[in-house]
Batch of 2 targets.
Target 1
Amino acid sequence: MPELAEVYYYAHRWEPAIGETITKVRHHPRARVFRRLESDPAETLTGSRLARILTHGKQMCFRFAQPDSWLGVHLGMSGKLTLVPLPYAPDKHDHLVLETGGHALVFTDPRMFGEIRLHAGAEPPAWWSGLPPECLSAAFDQPTLDAFLKRRAKAPLKAVLLMQERFPGIGNWMADEILWRAGIHPATPAGSLTPSLRSTLFQTLKEVCSDAMCVIGSDWGTPPDSWLFNHRWQDGGMCPKTGARLQREEIGGRTTCWSPKRQPRR
DNA sequence: TCCTATGTTGTATG
DNA sequence: ACATACAACATAGG
């Protein structure tokens, strides 16, 4: 489900538990979400204190102290985090439940495309320290974008924007929103953009990321109808800019929505 | 019953 | 080695 801003939103559902100590850990070790686990959650986290909440694109990291450890969470397609009062009876798809004195911190994910990772020790694990620059950081600049578009020259832009190695946090709806605002057809080969369109794409990408963080980031706000967001989900939607019917088709392996008038195929 | 779903990874192919 | 395309993963809901 979640992209950049939704990930931030869900990560901070656990905020009230900062400073609290984990008294009990419940999990189903055989669930797919634990496929790359490198240490046992109960042994590693019990008695340890939640110190910090961090997010990076679609990745989350919860820092625990005394002893030090790193809990990674990826929500996949259907994952969520919630914080509920105790006592709490775990639901069918609650794969990890951390209990403190007052709260249950719950990771739930019916489809199990999400993932839980865990690393014990003071040094950050590679799965956290090796992430690419965030889209909203200064290190993500125009030359960075240009170089990547050149390397992925023949792939459709829609597929390229979904690559987390360069665009951490961008998902299906954000990619469509970016291309729609930029007026670029999603099937356009990444290497074929003029310098002027590359500049437009860069600015639009930053804008969509920052708008998403403002609207969804801390509370859950629904994006306004002036975005493509509210019109792209099902057949029959209308473009809020042109008033014409939106088109939907699979591009880059994902359902893609665009406005033919604004985003002409070249 | 059939289709879809805000994601990533492994594998095949060029 | 690199880039691209696609099946596979598992479940719920329309």
Target 2
Amino acid sequence: MSLRYLLLGLLENPASGYDLKQKIDSMSHLWAAESSQIYGTLRGLEQDGLLRSKAQKSEKGPDRRVYSRTRAGQSTLDEWLDSDPEVGQERLSVLAQIHFLCRARDPAEARTFLQRVRERFAARLAQYEARRSAAEHEDPKADLLGNLALDLGLKTLRARVEWCDEAIAKLGLLTRAGRPRRA
Amino acid sequence: MSLRYLLLGLLENPASGYDLKQKIDSMSHLWAAESSQIYGTLRGLEQDGLLRSKAQKSEKGPDRRVYSRTRAGQSTLDEWLDSDPEVGQERLSVLAQIHFLCRARDPAEARTFLQRVRERFAARLAQYEARRSAAEHEDPKADLLGNLALDLGLKTLRARVEWCDEAIAKLGLLTRAGRPRRA
DNA sequence: CTGAGCATGTAACCCGTTACATGATTTC
DNA sequence: GAAATCATGTAACGGGTTACATGCTCAG
């Protein structure tokens, strides 16, 4: 993972750091990267011989540095594409928060906390659903990645909202079962 | 996020870095942390006045440094528990890989890649399901956090496997529709 | 003249991983 | 005496965030 491969992949055609930042921002639910990181990573890639760059006059503003893949860059990208999928562990700190709320405080507090978590997820889900219905009338092949990402996001968020609901219900039982408030 | 709060939370009773490492390892599907990080973080917390420590003789091996929360540590923990849930962005680099496989190479390659992704998720799902059925005969209240985490993991992984299947099907259509191999 | 957008960066920090060092005690 | 377990660390690196600096051009 890491931005390196993303940039390498996005540089199918020559582009500047600024361009790439735009592109990444436009796929906001997929990835995020700050300009500072992008520029730094680009220079790193160039030092490693995976990109080459040249300065270019721009009509507006200062010169732009336009990057393109070298042969080495291409084959590094290819290797990555042939490599095993990285399916890393997530660390959902929310779970830890619930745990401590339950143990050190009151299950009821954990419950209202979970309700806030649910709101967050639900809000994001709503955004995704809006985007989905906006994209409904377009050719599904046009933005395949966007659509796949959207599908994944939708499914994941639905699962999480569902989980919140069930967890809230479980905690509700605990609370009503007359466990001591404030340990 | 961050180990700091996790340690702060786990230190309900005094414990050494070693103890905490054990505890964290025992909740392996929830969190992971290396000893080096744990020891460093503990010292950081002590420097910030959130923990205090004293050396203790141990029967086996060298002295142990036993940490406990200070009042400041307690209130920092409380603040965290009162704070908004952090529901961060995930960066699924797998999506980027699929995208580039599709665009720069062949949708069929993306498809076999996705099949590997599916296998990964399915394998993890199987682990979780095994754990679930192992825990079935226990009191569900006994390890509440463990159970919630398990539920969340199950739901998320199921959603992902499902997504893989659908995505594979979609890519299958694309491939058979006679798109040019190798762009 | 101001402010928005173009365009690139530096420095400091945070969180985490990897590899390795040290040394004691117990068990085989 | 070798290996396992107890117990604590250091150093270097990787990946990312935050805050800020710089300076240009064009529209209002």
